[in-house]
Amino acid sequence: MIVGLTGTALAGSVYYYNHLESVPITGRSHFIMLSSSSEQQLGASALHSVLSEYRGRVLPQEHPDTRKVARIGKRIVAALNEPFEKGASVVHLADIKWEYFVIDSPMVNAFVLPGGKVCVFTGLLKVFHSEDELGTILGHEIGHVVARHSAEKVSQSMFLSLAKLLAIAVFGADLSGFISATSVIGLELPFSRRNELEADQIGLHIMARACFDPRVAPGVFQKLGDLEGGRAPPKYLNTHPPHRDRSVKLEDNMQERVTFSENIIVIGMRPSVAHSDGEGYDSKCA
User: Fold this and answer.
1) Is 82 a residue of the active site?
2) Which helix (H) or strand (E) holds 122?
3) How far apart are CA 90 and CA 177, in angstroms?
4) Under 8 Å CB-to-CB from 154, ≥6 apart: which residues?
5) In the chain, which end has fewer C-beta atoms inside a 10 angstrom radius, N or C?
6) What span, in angstroms and rounded, lies between the C-alpha atoms of 140 and 27?
7) Angle at 23 (CA atoms; ends 207, 82), nearest 5 degrees
8) Rounded Cα gap, residues 163 and 235, in angstroms
9) Within 10 A of 86 (CB to CB), how many other CB atoms are there?
10) Which strands, in side-by-side order, build the sheet including 110-113?
């Protein structure tokens, strides 16, 4: 039995090592079992559920709010075409078909599904009016796609399922309840908070690449914190770090991104992209 377990552990270690990827911009190594095509299929399925849930409340593509979100999103996505650091895993970005949807709802929310399906609620647009503010929000959400956080989450869940089966095999008892409870508090919630902070960092970088002003980012999360008030659960039970904590961390990372943005302005570069609606970004980033 010991020999068998040793062999299983060795094979598992090799498999784990061969499926490590480097997150663009942050350089963090993470374990990914899910292929890019499977990740996009998950996103398409989730989008179908979202559109079904909000049937009749999705604004037309020609609506001014949808055009505004698409304009900002395309500007950020265009910045993803610029080279990342050597060794970063960016192959998954090549085949993404980015789409933009605005949902008529007072909810102050936005998210981007795997495969580049961007969903924004009109409640968010009523709180954040400037393009720099919306660039902060969309930069963060697109940052999750850049970092493949959904694929990482699925991979973690698959790993935990295997751990439960292994526990049964080794201890002869079903410890899945204990493993599930401890993993939520000890792994999944810190994992979610870490990924949110990582998406903040990536979003700050790509919004600066796209010539949005990164100096507004801390204020965006401060405003979200003000809207949240005292309703958030304790930090260790929350999937997201407190917005005020995120604002402070963004302030700490600000100088590098401001310098980056100012350098782009000095150089006079700005992502240029041809849009199906005839709008482009050929002017200078000034």
Assistant:
1) no
2) helix 122-127
3) 37
4) 33, 34, 39, 42
5) N
6) 17
7) 45
8) 27
9) 6
10) 99-103, 117-121, 110-113
- For residues 202 and 57, give the distance between their C-alpha atoms in angstroms, rounded to a whole number: 31
Rounded to 10 deg, the angle between the 189-209 and 217-228 helix axes is 140
What secondary structure does DSSP assign to 273-286, as a single string? -B-TTS-B--S---
* pTM higher than the cut 0.90: no
User: Which of 25, 143, 26, 146 is CA-nearest to residue 84?
Assistant: 25
Residue 74: both structure tokens together: 């395309």
**Element housing 20 (H / E):** strand 20-22
Tell me the longest C-alpha to C-alpha distance in the chain. Answer: 68
Catalytic residue selected from 21, 39, 133, 141: 141
Q: Where are the beta strands (DSSP E) in 23-167?
A: 29-31, 99-103, 110-113, 117-121
Interior angle at CA 199, CA 234 and CA 261, nearest 5: 130
Query: pLDDT tens digits for 97-116?
Result: 999 999 999 999 999 999 99
CA–CA dist 238, 190 (Å, integer): 8
Say how far apart CA 162 and CA 170 lie, in whole Å: 12
pLDDT in tens, 109-143: 999 999 999 999 999 999 999 999 999 999 999 99
Token code pair at residue 5: 């377990």
